[in-house]
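Running this now, will post back.
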Amino acid sequence: MKLQITAKVVKQQADEASTDTVAQYLAGDQCDASVRQYIDAALADNTLRAYRADLQHFIAWCCVIPATPEQVASYLAQHATRAVVAVPAVELSTEDARKALPKEVPMKDAVYNLSRSALLAASWATGNWDNLPWAMDDRLHQPGHVVLGCF
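Update: finished.
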């Protein structure tokens, strides 16, 4: 099965659903700019490429689409330890987040972060998740982002 998920296909499907209330809202002037940004991000080429890769992985692992809730749960349980994502509960643009970072950092902080990266890689390699609280500590990004309310 070859997947053909592209921005053009998604936009075409959205256009075809224009009689739907949600589609009318999204197309209308009353649609908030922040909502439109999320929609644009969801239709970005890199996002669609990631969706396509994830879907191909899921199908190769077990299933056809549509999948049952049990199949999805089994897939998630099987692959749950393959990623760690730390997302602050704060909405912030990448541009603003980068502005909060210093232009230069002390060598000791760079070495500290590098050691934490090595600890994180070792944790993944050995499955020793007890190290994660220390491996996720950061002196380069977190201090600047605390000011923005991210931590």
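The first helix runs from residue 7 to 16. More later if anyone needs it.
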